[in-house]
Design a protein that fits this description.
Elements: H1 5-8, H2 10-25, H3 30-45, H4 50-57, H5 62-69, H6 84-93, H7 105-116, H8 119-128, H9 131-136
Helix pairs in contact: 2-3, 2-7, 3-6
């Protein structure tokens, strides 16, 4: 079996993802973008059980997959999904002293994730998860082609 594309090109894939997030969030640095994305992933994974989280992570690009599972305490109780405003507040509270995350952090992260994942695989995993999960990763765009996976 050949090496998976996401492992062979992890740095290029991550760079493209991070650049997209920075632009979409109007952030100036890689650190700011990383902090926002990490916070979004932490807030999201708190709402999954371990199996759901691993299934979700399995369709992410390799660096995002690593960030998603990094320091995950799977013994924590599962959190409820709230309205978007409360979720964004929770995202902004992660590493609050170093967090300049904008209000569109969840949408911008979802936008960039969708552009770096295989749509069929991503949708297959989302379809197995609760409706709130699908809502979390929903992105509304005028042109659906904007969300198609980018080949680097």
């Amino acid at each position: 079996m050949p090496m998976p594309w996401t492992y062979r090109h992890a740095s290029k894939e991550w760079r493209a993802f991070l650049d997209g997030v920075k632009e979409r969030m109007s952030l100036e640095s890689d650190n700011m973008a990383y902090t926002a994305v990490d916070a979004v992933l932490q807030v999201f994974r708190r709402r999954l059980n371990t199996q759901e989280g691993l299934e979700f992570a399995s369709v992410l690009p390799s660096v995002l997959r690593a960030i998603f599972v990094n320091n995950w305490d799977v013994t924590e109780p599962r959190a409820e999904f709230y309205d978007r405003e409360k979720l964004v507040s929770e995202v902004k509270a992660v590493r609050v002293n170093h967090n300049l995350t904008p209000d569109n952090a969840i949408e911008a992260t979802a936008w960039a994730v969708r552009r770096t994942t295989n749509r069929r695989d991503f949708e297959r995993v989302l379809a197995k998860l609760p409706a709130e999960v699908r809502d979390f990763w929903q992105v509304d765009v005028a042109d659906p082609a904007e969300l198609e996976q980018r080949i680097i």
